[in-house]
Design brief:
29% helix; globular; 661 residues; binds uridine-5'-diphosphate; five-stranded mixed sheet; disordered N terminus; alpha+beta; binds manganese (II) ion
Length: 661
């Protein structure tokens, strides 16, 4: 096999041939004993840990089963979980020692000028300082990972080798790939919606530029800070991408702040994420692996990780991330000052095609999390005036959810996740409402930077998972939105049905005496569109033909305003709002005069192009240009023209209150 050749070459340099059999035998015996011992040890320990880690009353108990129990429960179709945890043993004590060294910075003395790009602040992976040990390490992994179907276990690139160092892009000339290589490239993309082929060429320890705002470099953090358990859930993650995520945590986290890394396999089917992952990770004493027997969704996977975790702080990360220098202390510090704070890092994108990691995180342009009235997570640029300095923590109405740190006790106090949700989505909005409304707060921390591969589609969203996101948003709406749940329903076009049992979540809200959603809107998400504030809301009919109305797409930016048949079933296309500040809104978009033809554009509150008024003459009038909205005969696209008093410039309202059910 391909992987055997380099193995023998390297080993033969320092191992006399006659010892070879003895070493192989020893290694095999060792691995077997390790599995038997740790498997048994952890099965018992999990149960103990589970009972120690019980969340407060009223929360559903999550059972970690022994082997036989879980098989039984699977037969009965229960959402059973079998956890398998490995190690706290290592193949090689000296390697472990290496990984426990303080997280020192290394000089760039590799003589390679090409990557000497302003990396004075760059923290190099510890592996870089342990060249020899790494060679040994690599040899051992290659031996244990090698399997008949080699393509499932693409060889990893370590240390300073490979492409993409310092976050440089890796360009693959797809056209010139042939045969197997082309096939690998294509499957990599279609399986993951990112370029796995490129990732395989990049070191799992690649160095990264320091992308923080320069002001962050002068900060110091208190010592000691509480240590964290890092929890990474994954579902069929690409091998090199998952390994790089874990390496980036180990390489860039001071060991005394890292209690453990818990990998939660959410029922992956990829073969390389089973035994080979366990074998690979067994060299990292702090890495533990838990498994769901079948995909349960990231919410229950994270709850499982949290129950098992022993660190004071939980840090959740996605399985396709790269931590940068000093990423953790700024997060821990904020929580150590106030344990009800939930904090998340600045998250630059790792390019899904080239894996480039180059955008500087200019703290001034960071965006916080908000949501649309369909409960879709989205972003907003916070006002600079609200921040003491560009690098001060920023209050965030919601958080993106993949990457954040939270005090473990507080996580259980506020009710972890809604375990009636499944797959993916809306859980970040739900936990955000809950945190704010039940006594906590959420902050974006500009000086902590963790890259993430943002994708354009979720590779697991089809089949059995379709409809799950919608159900998750419904659960969020009925539990947290109070009277606004009807508004959500009309905006999203979803009936408030088929969301399962939410009684436990409503009880939780009651028990924690959480505040109202109105309070959240008035005190936290203060820039939200509040339909209550509108002086008038409803359909705008044309006086020329009353069955036609002004029509738009509430969640599409820059789209033309049109004239369409009136229909008021849902609020998102034709229910407009006249606001006291002379905006004509379609929820979060405003009618904007555009270039003569009106468009819908995010409201900017600066009047100008969006200074649009409904007058007593029934015109829709733009004072700065002294023009009126006109539906000309020839087109379904209205425009702004000189006001002439004709019926094509007259509009009347059919009132639709926002509370309309
Ligand atoms: N995930 C999971 N089970 C699921 C869906 C997702 O464990 O059913 C994991 C996934 O591998 C990732 C994290 O949860 O580490 C967040 O999912 P994803 O990255 O797809 O979400 P996005 O970042 O696109 O919002
Ligand atoms: Mn992700």
């Amino acid at each position: 096999m391909m992987l055997r050749a380099p193995l023998c070459r390297s080993l033969c340099k320092w191992v006399p041939r006659r010892w070879w059999h003895a070493i192989s035998l020893g290694l095999v015996t060792y691995i077997t004993c390790t599995f038997v011992f740790t498997g048994h040890y952890y099965k018992n320990r999990q149960i103990a840990t589970d009972s120690e880690a019980q969340p407060p009353d009223g929360l559903p108990r999550f059972i970690i089963n022994s082997d036989s129990e879980s098989k039984q429960m699977i037969k009965t179709n229960d959402s059973a979980v079998q956890s398998l945890v490995l190690k706290e043993k290592t193949f090689n004590a000296s390697l472990a020692e290496n990984h426990n060294q303080p997280n020192a910075k290394f000089n760039d003395d590799d003589g390679n000028d090409a990557d000497d790009v302003d990396d004075s602040n760059e923290m190099k992976p510890r592996e870089a300082a342990a060249e020899n040990k790494r060679d040994i390490e690599k040899v051992k992994h290659e031996e244990v990972i090698a399997q008949p179907e080699e393509e499932q276990y693409p060889p990893l690139v370590f240390g300073d080798e490979g492409q993409g160092q310092m976050g440089e892009p890796v360009h693959i000339d797809e056209v010139n790939l042939h045969g197997d290589e082309k096939e690998k490239y294509k499957t990599g993309f279609s399986n993951n919606d990112f370029n796995e082929y490129a990732s395989n060429l990049i070191s799992v320890d690649r160095r990264l530029p320091d992308m923080r705002d320069p002001l962050c470099r002068n900060l110091t953090y208190p010592d000691p800070l509480p240590a964290t358990s890092v929890i990474i859930c994954f579902l069929n993650e690409a091998w090199s991408v998952l390994i790089r995520s874990v390496h980036s945590v180990i390489n860039r986290t001071p060991p005394h702040l890292l209690k453990e890394i818990i990998l939660v396999d959410d029922g992956s089917s990829h073969e390389n994420l089973k035994k080979p992952l366990e074998i690979y990770m067994s060299k990292f004493p702090k890495v533990k692996i838990l498994r769901n027997m079948q995909p349960e969704g990231l919410m229950r996977a994270r709850i499982l990780g949290a129950k098992f975790a022993s660190g004071k702080i939980l840090t959740f990360l996605d399985s396709h991330i790269e931590c940068t220098a000093d990423w953790l202390p700024p997060l821990l510090m904020r929580i150590s000052m106030n344990s009800t704070r939930v904090v998340w890092p600045a998250i630059p994108g790792i390019d899904r095609k080239t894996f480039a990691f180059k955008t500087n995180v200019d703290a001034k342009v960071l965006q916080v999390g908000i949501f649309t009235w369909s409960l879709v997570y989205t972003w907003e640029t916070p006002r600079l005036e609200d921040r003491a300095t560009p690098i001060s923590p920023v209050k965030s109405p919601t958080m993106p959810g993949g990457l954040f740190a939270i005090d473990r006790d507080f996580f259980f106090h506020i009710g972890t996740y809604d375990d009636g949700m499944s797959f993916w989505g809306a859980e970040n909005v739900e936990i955000s409402f809950r945190i704010w409304m039940c006594g906590g707060s959420i902050e974006l921390i500009p000086c902590s930077v963790v890259g993430h591969i943002f994708r354009s589609r979720n590779p697991n969203s089809g089949g059995a998972n379709s409809g799950k996101w919608t159900r998750n948003t419904l659960r969020t709406a009925v539990v947290w939105l109070d009277e606004y749940k009807h508004f959500y329903s009309r905006v999203s076009g979803r009936k408030l049905v088929n969301y399962g049992d939410v009684s436990a979540r409503l009880q939780l809200r009651q028990r924690l005496q959480c505040r109202s959603f109105q309070w959240y809107l008035e005190n936290v998400y203060t820039t939200a569109f509040l339909p209550k504030r509108a002086t008038l809301s409803g359909l705008i009919h044309s006086n020329n033909n009353a069955s036609f109305c002004i029509h738009g797409e509430y969640d599409q930016m820059n789209r033309l305003v049109l004239i369409r048949k009136c229909e008021k079933k849902y609020f998102h296309n034709q229910v407009f709002y006249v606001m006291p500040n002379d905006e004509l809104r379609l929820i979060s978009n405003c009618m904007d005069i555009g270039k003569g033809r009106p468009i819908l554009y995010p409201c900017h509150r600066m009047k100008g192009n969006q200074d649009i008024r409904y007058t007593k003459n029934r015109t829709i009038y733009h004072p700065p240009s002294n023009t009126c909205l006109t539906w000309s005969k020839e087109s379904d696209k209205p425009d702004f023209r000189g006001c002439d008093g004709g019926t094509r410039q007259e509009w009347f309202w059919e009132k639709v209150p926002w509370t309309d059910v």
